[in-house]
Amino acid sequence: MKESLKVLVAALGLTLPGLAAQAQPASPARHELSLKQALEYAAKNNVQVKNALIDVQIQQQMNREVASAAYPQVSATGNFTDNLKLQTQLLPGEFFNQPAGTFVPITFGTKYVTTGSFDVSQILFDGQVFIGLQARKTSLQWKQKNAEITDETIRANVYKVYYQLVLSKTQIALIDANIGLIEKLKHDAQIMYENGFAEKLDVDKNDVQLTNLHTEKEKVQVSVANGYNGLKILLGIPVKDQLVLTDSLSDEEIRSDALQGATYSYEDRRDYQYLKLSQKLNQFNVKRYQYSKIPTLSAAFNYNRMNMENDFRFTGEWFEASYIGLRLSIPIFKGFGTNAKIRQAQLAVRQTDNQIENLKMTIDNDVQTAQNTFRSSISIMDYQKKNMALAETVYNQTKKKYEVGTGSQTEINTAQTDLKTAQSNYISALYDAIVAKVDYLKAIGKL
Known about the structure:
Elements: H1 2-23, E1 30-33, H2 35-45, H3 47-68, E2 73-82, E3 88-92, E4 103-107, E5 112-125, H4 127-194, H5 200-235, E6 242-245, H6 251-255, H7 270-291, E7 296-309, E8 318-329, H8 337-403, H9 409-443
Parallel strand pairs: 1-6
Antiparallel strand pairs: 2-5, 3-4, 5-7, 7-8
């Protein structure tokens, strides 16, 4: 007994540390992703995309279910009956040389009856099954197109959030640069104050600006951290993992291939393709109800064996029976219900036709609006870039004047504020331009 306990304790000593190691949470992973890699990651791990792809798999199984109706249906049944009390029948007395009008009670059957049956049926022609088989491919394409639309929506969001976070690096870098400038100004103002060439107010103004910049940086950093968590959810990355974005963004990249070709086709839009497939499915639905008026033909085969005995032994004779036949079903009148279904399906087709025509107009408007917005965004981006360079030049010249004593603290504060505003406007213009480009690519179906 003691030896057994020793073995058990030794086994636990070896096993528990291993289990403890397995129970420890895994260390956060590090993901370094370019935009292309982020898009590929989202296509595989985003929950909405994964569920849309599962819908495609569900449709594949539904197609198998539809196809099963065209295959032979085979079944086997068995039955055992114990007749606790056999039923009594009355037969005319004349059968047994009894007076007319009398009846003789007779019991038929055996106590135990065992049967086994094998059935096969096969549809030879059924219009609804035939249409269902034809519609399988279109149904699958319809689900696949819906998955593509979901993926496109996620791609657009990944584009925008990714570049927003990329630009946040530039925004924080500009804030840090401004903090460095103000710290230099504060240092110079402190020296001038100590030498009697400036007032204490000038030093205090620099402190106020520094506090404002540090507060702004803190807000931006919190916003960026929350943005990274949002992007992780969008990509399907655990929030605890580390995400590093490796791409950068410049106005040259945004301007590249801008409005190239400037032509588009309705067929390039996935939502248009989706509606066309919906139209085709509705047309199949019309045919399905129309074909339900056509007679159906099926074949059947049955084979069965029966054993009847009064003793529970099943060693007696087994009696066989079988048949083969055809069944023709001719629909004659169903209270006009089928006609109503046909009409409903036809009206659904008309609705889809109207939706397609409306979508064409919507696409035209989307493309025209996206083109105008994209062109305007590029122009504004160029203006803001030039304005930022000019504001930087003004600030540097004002700073030099201040350093040699020919400029005032008010002038340099104004120049610094203008520079900060120009920098913020340029960052906003960059982001607006990339969003406009993404919207344009999506509008023409090239995202």
